[in-house]
Amino acid sequence: MALQPIRKTCLFCSEKISYVDYKDTQFLRRFMSPHAKILSSNKTGSCSKHQRMIAQALKRARHMALLPFTST
Questions:
Q1: How does pLDDT run across 37-58, given as a tens digit for each residue?
Q2: Cβ distance 28 to 58 under 8 Å?
Q3: Out of 5, 9, 20, 33, which residue is the most buried by the measure of CB atoms under 10 Å away?
């Protein structure tokens, strides 16, 4: 008998957050790897709608030089 993996719930759906602010860099760092890559929705537990919002906010923050593009 195989154990079924525990499904993570979307943080944004559970907290009823409707907008991801690109200026909140401390919050956005939760969704980045140590090498400054965007983490997948499997690892973050976010739904596809909010994963797209996270990715867009991270890209905007990078463009405005609030977050790094890469990290060594």
A1: 999 999 999 999 999 999 999 9
A2: yes
A3: 20
Please tell me the distance from the alpha carbon of residue 71 to that of residue 5, in angstroms, as a whole number: 31
Of how many residues is the chain composed? Answer: 72
pTM for this model (two decimals): 0.84
The encoded tokens of residue 22 equal 């690109």
DSSP track, 10-55:
PHHHHHT-----TT-HHHHGGGB-TTSPBPPHHHH---HHHHHHHH
Helix H or strand E segment including 59: helix 48-63
Domains and CATH numbers, the chain: 18-63 (4.10.640.10)
